[in-house]
């Protein structure tokens, strides 16, 4: 089912949202039959609690959904979305929601309709929502479509989502919006993007590394998005243990997220010049794999000692960032499933981000709150710069000791982003470990809505 709203219709049934302290007041205005039904169902207004209400003839006349108390609302995103799977087919209208909360409720409802069904039947809930009055329905539909694209790309296993398939997805998106695609591979990649080549060269020929570049728009500020496209990460010669390899199909989550964000930007006709750079590789093991102790010379000319072949994401991003920075964009953003340290620091829900600009940080944080896309700023902590300087080369891709792993990775990337007017880095997880309202277990976009919402303030 498309993630769109139902057409406006007088036949839409009311879905009334109630907080716990509003339940008795609502019941006092109903007839005894409805009150008995609701009390028999023990409806208390808990977050996401849903009770369909039959009419006198047995047909459905509406439903209730709980908003939760203040504590539950702090702990639960998209509570109203839980009602979608509990309601029968047909159009519904949302009643009792504050105007300030209507957009989040509407977005959550659409996102709750997502199902990944490429390999097994997985029917989406049939209940549909009429867009609440006053919300920007086309924008919300575009946000849902962007998230669905990101989820689909992440959820697809590496057998069907290698560098070539990621390139095909980018080409499909470009065709849809009239963008231009250029792809660099082969010997040109070896000469112009040596670290992308070094990471991807051990893969099979049909999974060869490449740099995907998409450009769109001719007017306005220049925005460059760089997404980590490691389609599978074995860890290279520093081989991951089996348990750590299980989710590595999601290691291209940064690329998936920037493609979803690019769709949103282009679908909304944003007045800017968009450039998307995706280094697409598979970090495999073969006789041609890069080795611990190797020293690589990057596109920028900086040398990098390889102390762990499993810290490959920052290498491919570095060459792409150097390319992007050369044109001095007004804003350059990297998104990557980069470090386990970020997960230890903030868990799977929060997307940590880095910027040296306080105004940008405030804009992203506010947009994240407004658009139910939680983010958290971490510091580019300059005193840790020495940790990424091994002495034998300009930079170290995996500083010993394990301290501040997300920060040192971000500092590494910042060295290659010099030249961009402003730079932001997101260290995302890209995965929902347990099902939650509007967020099924599996691939998940993070930070894209927050960044999109902040763009007017950042690029004005």
From TrEMBL:
GO molecular function: manganese ion binding; metalloaminopeptidase activity
Keywords: Aminopeptidase, Hydrolase, Manganese, Protease
Family annotation (PROSITE patterns): CYTOSOL_AP
Keyword Hydrolase applies: yes
Pfam families from the UniProt entry: Peptidase_M17, Peptidase_M17_N_1
GO BP terms in the entry: proteolysis
Domain of life (superkingdom): Bacteria
Cytosol aminopeptidase domain segment(s): 308-315
Presence of keyword Protease: yes
Annotated Gene Ontology cellular component terms: cytoplasm
UniProt family annotation: Belongs to the peptidase M17 family.
Name recorded for this polypeptide: Cytosol aminopeptidase domain-containing protein
Native source species: Oceaniovalibus guishaninsula JLT2003
């Amino acid at each position: 089912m498309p993630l769109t709203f139902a057409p406006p219709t007088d036949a839409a049934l009311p879905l009334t949202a109630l907080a716990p302290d509003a339940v008795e007041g609502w019941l006092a205005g109903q007839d005894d039959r409805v009150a008995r039904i609701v009390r028999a169902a023990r409806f208390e207004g808990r977050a996401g609690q849903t009770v369909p209400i039959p009419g006198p003839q047995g047909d459905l006349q509406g439903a209730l959904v709980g908003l939760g108390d203040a504590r539950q609302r702090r702990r639960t995103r998209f509570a109203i979305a839980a009602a979608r799977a509990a309601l029968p087919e047909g159009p519904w209208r949302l009643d009792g929601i504050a105007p300030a909360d209507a957009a989040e409720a509407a977005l959550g409802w659409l996102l709750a309709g997502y199902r990944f069904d490429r390999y097994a039947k997985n029917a989406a809930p049939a209940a549909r929502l009429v867009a609440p009055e006053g919300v920007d329905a086309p924008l919300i539909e575009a946000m849902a479509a962007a998230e669905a694209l990101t989820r689909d790309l992440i959820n697809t296993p590496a057998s069907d989502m290698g560098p070539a398939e990621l390139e095909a997805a980018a080409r499909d998106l470009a065709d849809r919006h009239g963008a231009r695609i250029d792809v660099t591979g082969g010997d040109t990649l070896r000469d112009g993007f040596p670290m992308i080549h070094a990471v991807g060269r051990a893969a099979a020929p049909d999974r060869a590394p490449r740099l995907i570049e998409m450009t769109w728009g001719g007017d306005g500020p220049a925005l460059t998005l760089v997404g980590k496209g490691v389609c599978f990460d074995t860890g290279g010669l520093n081989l991951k243990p089996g348990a750590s390899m299980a989710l590595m199909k999601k290691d291209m989550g940064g690329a998936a997220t920037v493609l979803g964000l690019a769709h949103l930007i282009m679908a909304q006709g944003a007045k800017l010049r968009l450039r998307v750079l995706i280094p697409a590789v598979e970090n495999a093991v073969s006789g041609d794999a890069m080795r611990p102790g190797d020293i690589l010379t990057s596109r920028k000319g900086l040398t990098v000692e390889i102390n762990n072949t499993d810290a490959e994401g920052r290498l491919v991003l570095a060459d792409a960032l150097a390319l992007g920075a050369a044109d001095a964009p007004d804003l350059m953003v990297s998104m990557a499933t980069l470090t386990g340290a970020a997960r230890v620091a903030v868990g799977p829900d929060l997307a940590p981000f880095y910027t040296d600009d306080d105004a940008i940080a405030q804009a992203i944080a506010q947009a994240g709150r407004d658009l139910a896309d939680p983010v958290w700023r971490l510091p580019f902590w300059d005193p840790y710069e020495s940790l990424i300087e091994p002495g034998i080369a300009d930079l170290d891709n995996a500083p010993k000791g394990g301290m501040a792993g997300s920060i040192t990775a971000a500092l590494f990337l910042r060295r290659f982003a010099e030249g961009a007017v402003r730079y932001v880095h997101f260290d995302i997880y890209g995965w929902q470990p347990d099902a939650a309202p509007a967020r099924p277990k599996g691939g998940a976009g993070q930070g894209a809505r927050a960044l999109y919402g902040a763009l007017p303030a950042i690029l004005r």
